[in-house]
Amino acid sequence: MMSLTNDQWNDICDAIQQNECVLLLGPNAATYNGEPLSQLLAKRMARSLQREYGVEPTDCPAKLFELVKMYQSKCGDRTNALEKIGRMFRSFYEEFVPMDIPIYRLLAELPLRYIINTSPDDLAAQALAQKDRVPHFFFYHFFKPEHNSTANAKAVDLDQVIDIDRPLLYNLTGHYSQPDSLVLTDDDRLQFVEKVLQTDKGGLPPNLAFYYTNKPRFRMRKTYLFVGFDFNEWHLRLLMHLLRRSQEHLPQTFTLQNADDLHSEIRFFYDNSFNMVFAGNQSESFLAELGGRLKKNTNSKKDNAHALQLLLLYHEADTPLLEELEKHLASLRGGGWIETWHEGKISSGNDHDQTIAQHLQTADIIVPLVTANFMDSDSLYEQDLQIALQRHENGQAKLVPILMTPYNLYDTVFEDLNTLLPKPRGKAVSEKPDREAALADIAKEIRTIIDRIKNPIKIILS
């Protein structure tokens, strides 16, 4: 049994389902036949020291970072040593099949969007890809700021493409393909922490760090899940300081380690400085149960979900545009998330204006299809839209206009609406190079809006 309450389990599940959970994989997370890969790699390096430099087995340190330091010392030339270490690491990790590593097999099944890895390999990325979840994969290079600048440039507007199928995976301590990026020794750890904490001098790339820390626009806070770490190690206190500094409130943190395994003064430090829950050390059992709870939670929500009422406002001349959009909303209708209505569904004999007025007052989401025809219509722009805007401003409905064809929105009610689609704003659907892709993205945005309506963002006051 895990030492978590049902409320704590629900907190983790909710954070994952609201895209606000970051999983951090420590050096002891990945195991093979019950032994951490980091320990198996340490044994490999110890044998190399014995074979290449005649080091006695009894003189070999137990920990990997100590063995690396000895290897560099014996080799003499740091550059040569790093090249040899890189080849050794590559050879070692290429021996393993990702799905043979329990933690990666479980990870590939979890709907996580944000993952930080502290191992120097890409086995986690391979495991995700084998489940058709090809990640956006980056790694940090604390010796080469230009490497991080390049990664940072690629991370612009990444929030538009990060999803369950394309999670963001970041190797925090380098990758063996560039051995000089690796954080290998205690001296490296010290330099690494110094640079990461100095955000203006080589810290984490800000565009990438944005996704793993607080989002100021929405005043959210992340939930962090640590797997495979030993919080007795000194550098983790500095890492937690970095995470706390990036948010306005203490992040909620779950750590798969027994609290009794901590030194008493270190436990006192975490108990008094951070919002940490120590949830036992059975990582694989924990993630397996988490996966089961997520599935149960998702099924329960689907069973209890009620469809939101989505009203489409459009000009009769734009009926082909309406039909085109409705095709892309079909999955939301089929999934029970929305019921769509528009004036084309008014039965003969019903009062046209009264029927529209009723739907304007009861709709949860109101979607005007903005075109020159729409803007030129007094009944749409001056009457129906004003009612919709009032309900939007009162928090009674979401007004989600879609710019279907080009129109200058300056000095219109749409100009400052954050819900204006498509995103990023600027071009109408008809101006997009891939019209079908633009409409599919709009359907995704509406699905996100549905989630926000059903699970309102909670503002945490200090």
Structure description:
α3 (64-75) crosses α4 (78-93). The chain is of the alpha/beta class and 462 residues long. The radius of gyration is 27 Å and the shape is elongated. It has 18 helices and 14 strands. The longest helix has 22 residues, at 283-304. The chain has three domains: 6-31 and 98-299, Carbamate kinase; 35-93, no CATH class; 306-454, Rossmann fold, CATH 3.40.50. It is 45% helix and 12% strand.
Gist of the model:
It is built from 18 helices and 14 strands. The protein is of the alpha/beta class and about 450 residues long.
Radius of gyration: 27 Å
Class from secondary-structure proportions: alpha/beta
Unreliable sequence segments = 458-462
Individual helix count: 18
Q: At the third CATH level, what is the topology name of the largest domain?
A: Carbamate kinase
Q: Which CATH first-tier class of the largest domain would you pick?
A: Alpha Beta
Shape field: elongated
State the strand order across the main sheet.
Answer: 5-6-4-1-7-8-9
Query: Largest sheet, described in full?
Result: 7 strands, parallel
How helix-rich are the residues, as a percent range? 40-55%
The number of distinct β-strands equals: 14
